[in-house]
Structures are given as structure tokens and as C-alpha cells.
Amino acid sequence: MLDIKFIRENPEAIKKAAQQKRVGLNVDELLQADKNLLELKRKNQALNEEKNANAKKMKGASAEEREAIIKRGREIGQEIDALKDQTEAAEKALQALMYLVPMIPDPTSPVGPDESGNVPVKTWGVKPEFKFQPKDHVEILQARGWAEFERIAAVAGSRSYSLKAEMVILENTLLRYGLEKLAAKGFTLISVPAMAREAAFVGTGHFPTGKDQVYYLPDDDIYLAGTAEVPLNALHSGEILSEDQLPILYGGVSPCFRREAGSAGRDVRGLIRVHQFNKVEQYILCKNDPTESSKLHKLLLETSEEILQDFELHYQVVEVCTGDMGAGKFKMFDIETWVPSEKLYRETHSCSNLHDWQARRTNLRYRDKEGTVKYVHTLNNTAIATPRILVPFLEQHQTEDGKIRIPQKLRQWIGGKELL
User: How many CA atoms lie within 13 A of 6 on its CB side?
Assistant: First the structure.
């Protein structure tokens, strides 16, 4: 969401952003809704001024004049009551459109229609070469008895998974490593619930669009979040922080849930596109300063890269284009990790700078050193998500005899083992 004053003054910039980001927003309709609301508010103000002026006439008025004054007072009250319902309806209409307003993307971001327009900007490591026919992650897991797929699907439905034996240790080791990395960089570690109220999803921009991707518990009127970003973004809602408290760096850990609606038959093998997973999320609130948030955006990306480098995984960084970055993003990078069996890179991290777009929706503010209240900038990036990261991890580190090589920096976390 953007400032309505900015939208009034820059309608063409908003139209361009909506077109570049493929957002279904009619800017002219929004501006008309804004005018309608302003007109209703002007009428309401005029009626209240007349009401006050009319009441003052009572002093010193004759009995006959008092009757006319009282009659007019009732008429004004009825007109104000009628305007109240109209104004509330107009406010809701404008708010619904305001929630669709996109952040204007960084002018340096690539312009493109979808992921095909994303631009690789960095590669780390080399693609692993095997002197044997490598297995995919499902074959590796099943050969070692490290997972249940068919049995657990009978219990929990399709796109469920169950890890077993050493794989449970490995999954939790990767998550723990991500937490330790963030703690060492000054992030405050915080566990958050997977459940959140609708307002929290509106605040991040997952709602009103995107509801089809979220599990809803109607008896409790609550939703299951697909990222710790949702509760973390709402954690300080309505507060006015001081500039001295910023930046706030959170390392959020939580179970996550996504319906993955619309992906039936596509990318659903094994541990890909599962409904429930675990994630350590980087989340930052900082002062309203593009230079500051750009610096912290770089920190988020570098931190995730360090984790992948410690895991000795070959990956690439892509700059996400306007048509793929989502409505609220100012600038965005993805990290894609190499999956040998598919001979392609799969997205494992999404690193976003949203400026004050989320903060305006969630009412996240701070008072600067001059005493001015401003909206913060928010940023987020994956630190580690499992089991997603296990797909490239198992495939890149497999050996000919079906074992998994453990990278040097992880061995102390897994009993000193070099191989699983």
C-alpha cells in the first residue's frame, strides 16, 4: 500500500507499476473512489458545521424560532446519519482498491512478464560431476529407508512426507545451523506460531489475493501461515518504535503450511511442493531510508549465500524481474540451488526489500530523532527451509555407494560423521 497523496500526484507511475507487475488494479477507479470519499467527507463536515451553527441560534430565539431551529436540527441529524452509511461503504470500496496498489519497483530491476525475465547475476561453486548414474532425491531416500511417502500419504494425504532415522537428524541439523548463523550475525532468534489472524496476512500482502494458497480453520477464524514473515510483520503493529531501536533483526523459526493450489501434477515429486515444512526466516524492520534498507537487503542475501556455501552447494543468484516479484516488492533476488537429477536450478531462497509498502498496511512506525513519526522499511529472506533444501543437498552430495557426504562445516553438528 502507498500513500494516497502520492497516488493522487503520480497516477501514471502507479499505472506503470501495475502493468509491469501484472496487478489487476484500475487506477482511475481508485482515484474516483478517492474523490467520492472526499466529497462525502466534505458534505459531512458542512452538515456538522451547519448543525453547530443551528444550535447556537437557540440562544435568545423566540418560541416560534426555536421550533424551526429544532426541526432543522432533526433534519441535519438525519442527513448526517444517512451520510454515515454512505461514507463507510465508500471507505471500504477505497480500502479494497488501496490493498491492490503495488510498490513502484526499483528502476534498476529488470522488466519482464514472469520468471523467464529473471536475470542471473552470480554463480557460486561448480555443478557436481558424477562418474556414476546419479539418483534423484526420492531414490536416495527410499534406498536407505530414510523416508515414507506412500504410507504417510494414506495418513495425511498427497504431498505429505515423513523423514526417518538419520534424515531426521540431518533436517534438524540444517535448521539449527541456520539459527546459529543468524544468532552469530546479531539476529534475535524468535519462535512464532504457525497460526495468524486475517489482519496479519493483509499486512504482509498475502491477502486479499493469495487466499487460495492458505489453510483456513473456520471454527477458530484463523489461518495457517506459510512463513514466519506473517506473524513477525504483525508483531509490532500499532506501536511507535524509537529510531534507536532500529534496525530490528529477527530470525524467526516456525512450522509452515501452504496449500500449493493450482500446482497439481507439476513439481510435486517427493519433497518438492509439500504442504507442511519448516523454515528459519530472516526478517528486518529498519528506518525509512533507502540507503539503509539497501544495505540490509545485501546483508540478508549474503547471509543465505554463506549458509549455502557452508553446505558446499552449487547455486546461482538471480535478480527477479517486475512481473515475477509480486506487488509489494521494491527489489528482489532469488537464490536457486542446482538439482542434478533435473539438470536445473530450483528456488530455495527469496530475498525481498519492500520499503514501507508492508509497514503502511500493518501500521509499523517509529519516531525519528527529529520527532517525526514515519513508517519503517521491512525486508525478508529465507535462511533455510526444509525439506526443500534436502533435494539439492542429497543429490549434490551423493556417493556411488548411495551414501551422503557431509560438508566439513556440518560434521561437528552431526556427530563428526563424514558420510551418512
Answer: 13
Residue of 258, 346, 361, 365 marked active site: 258
- With contact defined as beta carbons under 8 Å apart, do 375 and 360 qualify? yes
Q: Which of 293, 341, 350, 352 is catalytic?
A: 350
Gap between the Cα atoms of 29 and 90, Å rounded: 12
Radius of gyration of the chain (CA): 27
Cα–Cα distance for residue pair 358/408, rounded to 1 Å: 39
Q: Give me the amino acid identity at 246.
A: L
What per-residue confidence (pLDDT) applies to 269? 84
Q: Where does residue 165 fall: left (phi above 0), alpha (psi -120 to 50 degrees), or beta otherwise?
A: left
Whether the CB-CB separation of 372 and 338 falls below 8 Å is answered with no
CB 374 within 8 A of CB 365: yes
- Catalytic, out of 273, 367, 405, 411: 273
Query: What digits encode the pLDDT tens for the residues 67-110?
Result: 899 999 999 999 999 999 999 999 999 999 999 999 999 999 99
* List of domains in the chain: 4-98 (1.10.287.40), 115-414 (3.30.930.10)
